[in-house]
């Protein structure tokens, strides 16, 4: 699994 | 969006509102670290620059704006409106000892070497340690008002709930952001000692006083 970006979080 | 994330966000919002109301109702910011509040404002400013470039949802944008406005409002109340009540001689943590290393680290360890990305990373790292001036202030005075301890509990719970959210997202979506997760764990660990005192003292109706 590849790291994803938590930009949809606050 | 899952329930852990939502309750985490609401807990974060509750923390900010508790603090604002405490300052507003008592007309005093005694016992509150202005330095931590400045750091939190800096966290929101550097993280939410994407408010104009990256639309996620109405919920996301509205919450970002609320966090920004309320945290800047807290700083305004502390440093302008109720400045006379600000306990600056107990708020002596040197924030450059946090901002400088965190700034360096965000240049070294990030998802992408672009200005917005580095600022986002900076905000994630800075948030994880931004409470230290407040905890330092409590350790200096040896006590915290009950309302301040409720504030800290809500603020600490928020990142702890985010950790549960990340575990849930990992299993349901295969989602993980290592930078956010590691920083979020550090942030939560910093609250552990406080959580212990909160549960064993404040919830039993006593004031939060540190053992001498």
TrEMBL record, chain B:
Molecular function terms, GO-annotated: ER retention sequence binding
Any single Gene Ontology cellular-component annotation: endoplasmic reticulum membrane
Source organism: Branchiostoma belcheri (Amphioxus)
Keywords for this protein: Cytoplasmic vesicle, Endoplasmic reticulum, ER-Golgi transport, Membrane, Protein transport, Receptor, Transmembrane, Transmembrane helix, Transport
Pfam families, sorted: ER_lumen_recept
Family indicated by similarity: Belongs to the ERD2 family.
Segments crossing the lipid bilayer: 65-82, 94-113, 119-138, 174-199
Protein name: ER lumen protein-retaining receptor
Subcellular location: Cytoplasmic vesicle, COPI-coated vesicle membrane; Endoplasmic reticulum membrane
Keyword Acyltransferase: no
Membrane topology: Multi-pass membrane protein
Any one biological process term the GO annotation gives: vesicle-mediated transport
Chief place of localization: membrane
């Amino acid at each position: 699994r590849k790291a994803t970006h938590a930009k949809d979080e606050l | 969006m899952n329930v852990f994330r939502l309750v985490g966000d609401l807990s974060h919002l509750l923390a900010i509102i508790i603090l604002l109301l405490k300052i507003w109702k008592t007309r005093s910011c005694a016992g509150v670290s202005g330095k931590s509040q400045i750091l939190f404002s800096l966290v929101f400013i550097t993280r939410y620059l994407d408010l104009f470039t990256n639309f996620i949802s109405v919920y996301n944008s509205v919450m970002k704006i609320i966090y920004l406005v309320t945290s800047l409002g807290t700083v305004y109340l502390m440093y302008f409106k109720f400045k006379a009540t600000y306990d600056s001689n107990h708020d002596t943590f040197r924030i450059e000892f946090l901002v400088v290393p965190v700034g360096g680290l965000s240049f070294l360890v990030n998802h992408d070497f672009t200005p917005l990305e580095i600022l986002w990373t900076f905000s994630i790292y800075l948030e994880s340690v931004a409470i230290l001036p407040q905890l330092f202030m409590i350790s200096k005075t040896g006590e915290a008002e009950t309302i301040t301890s409720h504030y800290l509990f809500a603020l600490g719970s928020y990142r702890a709930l985010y950790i549960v959210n990340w575990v849930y997202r990992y299993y349901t979506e295969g989602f993980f952001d290592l930078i956010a997760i590691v920083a979020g764990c550090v942030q939560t660990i910093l609250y552990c000692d406080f959580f212990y005192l909160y549960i064993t003292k404040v919830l039993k109706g006593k004031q939060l006083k540190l053992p001498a």
